[in-house]
Structures are given as C-alpha cells and as structure tokens.
Task: structure prediction
Amino acid sequence: MDHEKVAASLAELGNSHRLSVFRFLVKAGNDGASVGNIQKVLDIPASTLSHHLTRMVKVGLIRQEKHSRTIVCIPEYGHLENLISFLQEECCAGVQVGHEPESL
Result:
C-alpha cells in the first residue's frame, strides 16, 4: 500500500468522531449501518456526520450504498486489512538502533 494513502487514512481515523463512526461500522459488520442509525446511536449532528462520512469515503475507509431512500455506510475491510499489514510488514526487521552511553 502507498505510504501517502496510508498516512491519509490514518489521519482521518485520528479524528475522534470519525474513529467512533468507523468502530461502530466495524461492529455493524458487512451489512453496514444507515446514516440515520449512525447519527442516532453516536449522537452526531447530521451536517457534521455528513462531513465526516465524506472524508472517510474519500480515503477508502468506507463506501456508501443507496437503498431506496436510505444511505448505508459499509466499512471497507480490505482497506483496513491493508492498513494493518502496512503497519506490520517490517515488524522486527532488525533495524540497528544506536544507544546513547549511560550517564554516571
């Protein structure tokens, strides 16, 4: 995964409201949740929620589907897995870290 895309996604999750929305959607599962349900459960004003959802869609954290007159938000689990893999891919790769001499 591209470094800049990872940084953008993590930046969006760095906002408390967006992190709450994303965690709620992950709990909701593959069927996602309607915008109205997210708003009701998380008590986020509609205009504020719309702004946060737009930002999350833009970086690929969620997608939105229209079902009749209802907009459903669905977490992009593949994107989440890619983020986690990116963060873990060089785990314990043996980077040499210099240590400062201890002061006496």
